[in-house]
Write a structure and sequence with these properties.
With 307 residues, this protein is of the alpha/beta class. 45% of the residues lie in helices and 18% in strands. Helix 5 crosses helix 9, helix 5 crosses helix 11 and helix 7 crosses helix 10.
Length: 307
């Protein structure tokens, strides 16, 4: 199968290396002026070095991709969606493999619901340097699906098997949007606090004061979920918190959030996480004081670290 990976950071490097190694025709799209010829993978899924094709311009792409994987940070989504317009033709699908709320919605608005695949990625990868990535943790399979139920299920199941066969455990789920919100809740509660305190998820959980903040972040998020009637697996914040503390944190306890590295560079995905909750809340005239404070603190730390 033919793939284009848009954004060759940590996540994009994993897909570029594994899909290429599996024999698929794959190219990665880098920012202008950047180049890599190999990706070295290490960590929990094994170690290997793979020669790859990486381009800094779509004009250099020699094939029409069947699936475009969008793996850029959420603050680059609009630019990336605009840049890929020349190749979003025919039967090319766009798969959203990003953190946060709003990326899928923007993609559907631009390219139509029949073209956009949603995924929930919950394995952790760290870019050690350009062309070298470490897979650190895996909380569950990657989940892919179509919230609009217009893309053929057989195709999505086949795509999931293709990824799994390539070494990235993936499954199809009809209720993929619920899985996305499961991760949004997870990231909102952990990523900014991990970035602020520079601690692992397990260390955050063990601190009763931080745990209290996580509780309030989740409770406020469920106010938004209830106001919009957003489908989730959880009937209440209490139900989700039990799942969060008992099932999600333990397998990722040693993990640091990618937001910790991002905030040191002066830019994070906070607007697609807790910031997105605030924007949704504003439209319903809801107040989320703890999430509001968290967003302000992250933006303050971003500003301290900007050049």
């Amino acid at each position: 199968m033919k793939f284009l990976i848009v954004g060759v950071g940590a996540l994009g490097s994993v897909y570029l290396a594994f899909l290429t190694k599996a024999g698929h025709e794959v190219a990665g799209l880098l920012k202008k002026g950047r180049t890599i010829k190999k990706v070295k993978v290490e960590g929990i899924w094994g170690e290997f070095e793979q020669e790859v094709e990486a381009l800094d311009s779509l004009e250099k792409l020699s094939f029409q991709p069947e699936v475009v994987l969008l793996t850029v940070k959420s603050y680059d989504t609009e630019r990336a969606l605009r840049d890929i317009k020349p190749i979003m033709r025919g039967k090319t699908y766009l798969m959203i493999a990003q953190n946060g709320y709003g990326n899928y919605e923007r993609a559907v608005e631009r390219y139509g619901r029949e073209r956009v695949i949603l995924s929930r990625v919950i394995f952790g990868a760290k870019l050690l340097e350009w062309g070298r990535v470490r897979i650190t943790v895996c909380g569950d399979d990657v989940v892919i699906g179509d919230p609009e139920d217009v893309i053929k299920e057989n195709f999505l199941r086949g795509l999931a098997k293709l990824f799994t066969d390539a070494g990235i455990p993936t499954r199809y789920e009809k209720e993929v949007y619920k899985y996305l919100w499961d991760k949004i809740l997870y990231n909102c509660a952990l990523n900014p606090l991990g970035a602020l305190f520079e601690k692992t998820y397990g260390e955050l959980y063990k601190n009763p004061h931080v745990k209290s903040l996580m509780d309030r972040i989740i409770e406020e998020a469920f106010e938004v979920i209830k106001a919009y009637g957003i489908p989730t697996f959880w009937s209440s914040s209490e139900d989700y918190r039990r799942h969060f503390y008992n099932n999600l944190i333990p397998p990722t306890a040693e993990h640091y959030p990618s937001m910790l590295e991002d905030v040191k560079k002066g830019r994070t995905e906070i607007d697609a996480l807790n910031g997105a909750l605030l924007e949704l809340a504003r439209k319903k005239e809801l107040k989320l004081p703890v999430n509001s404070l968290i967003v302000e603190l992250i933006k303050a730390k971003e500003l301290f670290n900007q050049p």
